Amino acid sequence: MAFLTDRKRADGMGAAKTGTASFWWMTVSSVALLLLVPIFIFTAGPMIGEDYTTVTAYFSRPFPAIVALLTFSVGLLHFKNGVTVLIEDYVQGLARKIWIIVMTCVSYAAIATIVFAIARIAL
Amino acid sequence: MAVSNSDNRPLSPHLTIYRPQMTSISSIFVRITGNALLAATLLMVWWFLAAATSLGAFELASSVITSWFGNVVMILSLWALWYHTLGGLRHLIWDTGRGLELRAAERMGWMMIIGSLVLTALTIFYFLLGA
Question: Which of A58, B22, B99, B102 registers the highest number of CB atoms within 10 A of its CB?
């Protein structure tokens, strides 16, 4: 039995029916990235240009591997939500849907790739 | 019903009519940097995948990222990452209800530009020191 009134169900949900969920998620992920990004820059950054043995040995260590995994996965989910708003602002109709679907797939594919790559290097 | 006049109605003033302001430009660049970071992200994902695959694959990815073109992309992306991070910090400050006055918002815009350039220079200096 539904005790909620129609008004209560609609209140605060807006036209998208999701309320402030996207906004709040971007807030949470941006706070996480505020910490992750500088740590990632100073741990992974010096590895660019290093040789194969050095790089694979470095990312076999727990801290650099976990920081890289978190930065890429949280960063790409943050990107997925951000690029969705960008597309919604500038693209209309069917093209909007296609772009959002494509960029969502690219984001998840990149996350899956980085999880596979770092797991394979580290384990 | 009135005859539809939707084609002749005046449009509200848009980007082309406004003088660029610190608040609008610094905000637009947060969007541009955030979305452009996909390029360097995918380059780095390729670099990690190559490191997980083989020596030959890694050397190809590494040579592309450290080529002059790769260096341009990575240095611009390093700046973009710092700028977007400071832009995000400004949004978090705004979310607390602080810094919304015009002067404060403009000052934070300048801090984002100068801060991102300083942080980029310091980071490159740190990398060169280690190499």
Answer: A58
Contact of A79 with chain B, judged by CB distance below 8 Å, is answered with: yes
- Give the C-alpha distances (Å, rounded to integers) separating A90 from A100, B17, B25, B26, B96: 12, 18, 17, 19, 29
pLDDT surpasses 70 at B55: yes
- Is residue B44 included in any domain, yes or no? yes
Tally the domains of chain B.
1
Q: Which residues of B touch A56 (CB under 8 A)?
A: 51
Cβ of residue A31 closer than 8 Å to a chain B Cβ: yes
* Residue B48 falls inside a structural domain: yes
Complex-level ipTM = 0.89
| Residue B112 in tokens | 């984002």
Q: Is B112 exposed, middle or buried (0-12, 13-18, 19+ CB in 10 A)?
A: buried
Residue B53 sits in a domain whose CATH number is 1.20.1300.10
The two tokens of residue B98 are 């602080």
What is the residue type of B92?
L
Do A62 and A69 touch, CB atoms closer than 8 A?
no
pTM value is: 0.89
Domain that holds residue B110: 22-130
Question: Which residue in this structure is represented by tokens 């959002």?
Answer: A100
- A80-105 mean pLDDT: 95
